[in-house]
Amino acid sequence: MASPLLSLFTGRSWSRSVETITPQRTFADVILPAETRRSLEDALAQVRNHSLIFTRWGLGERHSAGLGLAFNFVGPPGTGKTICAEAIANSLGMKLLVVNYAEVESMWAGETPKNIVTAFRTAAEQRALLFFDEADAIAGRRSIAAASLPYQREANITVNVLLRELEAFNGVVIFATNLAANFDPAFERRIRAHVRFDMPGLGEREQIWRVQIHPSKTPLAHDVDFRVLAEQFAVSGGDIKNAVLKAAAAAAADPRPERTRQIHQEHFERAMADVIAAKEIMQQSLFRDKDPFLQAMERMQKRMYAAAVIAATSLIVAAIALAIVLVR
Length: 328
What we know:
Blueprint: H1 4-10, H2 14-17, E1 18-21, H3 34-48, H4 50-56, H5 59-62, E2 69-74, H6 81-92, E3 95-99, H7 101-104, H8 111-126, E4 128-132, H9 150-168, E5 172-177, H10 185-188, E6 193-196, H11 202-211, H12 226-232, H13 237-252, H14 265-282, H15 292-327
Parallel strand pairs: 2-5, 2-6, 3-4, 4-5
Antiparallel strand pairs: 1-3
């Protein structure tokens, strides 16, 4: 359980850090390259055959630790990693426990490792598939050179706790990352399989455009050509989804009567141009050349500094109050 002081000073709570989802989406909802789909099917087969291998075949009696299944989904944003985690949970009849690392990470010493432990305990109690997004931020390489720094010690402890919990966990864990090279080597050895999510090709992009549209309710104009859109924009599935929603919003804002409103090709083209422009703006961030692990360390350092300021302020207030009492 998170510290009450954490909620007092940051407004955060454990319920915000972890979200339990009843899976709705299936593999039919995502368009993937053939190799990625084969890798996912292999991972799913490992889960389904787990009891056969470790119980009926007796390997669990020879290997008492590390019986859980950990998979790593690697690929650019918007390529289907989160949807596939939900689809796997759905196919296994399990809940999906999504860990928001930005919320799990705490400025209070010792709280982040405790939050990690709680995530694994909650997944075991709920029989849920545990999903860590932006996993490279939490499972980054441990540092020896900078271990004397408080925030680095905290990061090293967090990785140690994650490794320990992963070794003891008997369920299914999925890590998603854009930067697998940042993983600590000891963490990488505990991964059963890596699934690579590449950017969709031309044919896949065309299918992704089509599956975003309701086959009978969405009012498409006759000039819409998804093949042309797929050829024109080499983007991810997430980008296509955002563009479709933007195009629909633009078409719905047409002042003409509702029955005459339609989504035209130009709506999709303008919407995608907006999506691409927004990504370019985000990439102009001062932190674009820094990996998520370093950014997480910087956030932790700032939070620990804030905690020190709060503590120092409290001590000063207490000293003043004591002085007033003594003077009287």
